[in-house]
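#structure-requests
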Amino acid sequence: MNSSVELQRYKKLVMIAGGASVATAILFIIIKFVVWVISSSTVIFASLTDSIFDLLASLVNLLALKFSLSPPDKEHRYGHHKSQALASLAQAAFIGGSSVLLVIHGIERCLHPQGVLYLDLAIIVSVISIVITVLLVLLQTYVYRLTRSEAISADRLHYLSDVTLNIGVLLALALSYYGYLWADGLFASLIGLFIMKGAYVIGFRAVQTLLDKSLGRDSIKKIINAIHSIGDVKSVHDLKTHRAGPMVYIQGHLVLDGNMDLFKAHDIVDEIEKKIRIDFPDAEIILHMEPDTQSTYEDVVFFDSAEDKTE
């Protein structure tokens, strides 16, 4: 980060969001377990199962967040930020497992429908779950906008799916009230499929981070424009970027006049780094200077320009 104050702010925000997720999951497990025992609703059981996996995922997420904030050491000189992506991958596994269980259990209840007891109580709990989950998602959205934490983003997407889950629970309970007993099992299965989709999205994003996916097109264009804003740069090539936790990593090769004084070349690179940090204040930047000669272009892998339309 730009300063130790901002780093401490980042740590505080992500830990608050992580702790709130754990507390919410525990509260939901207690409430839904009591209601499931009383009502015997399969869709409430589906929601309870999801909350149990929510707790496991949130605990893993919280531990990963804490580990990712550890300072760099000799063995991990880039820091530990990618542990957030690993936590997101673990979340995808937890969520995927719960979705399979819900689909199987829902199909079984569709084939052998049963009445739901204490519908009013089950509906009240579902409404409470929606309200609390929405409040949690609002907190996570606020923290994500300030920190761009991947783990918080994954947890936020996870709980957004929970809002849909609880809306589905309400619909199933309402249909059961009017005698459509099969709705309990059907909605449990549909909820499971929806959660499965969320698990795929979370897992895919985590894998992209672990594979060092480049920043988006707009970000790349800003970097290239910042480089070419200094007139002494002949061209730029082999620009590589990726994000890990709060950090953005940028490296590339700048082609300069081969007869340029080393001190002037160094000043040019310093000026370019300042320009890049206007849009990426927390970036770690490594720019390699090369002379404008034929041999420089022999081993170039990627020629980069602001007009490049590829991601």
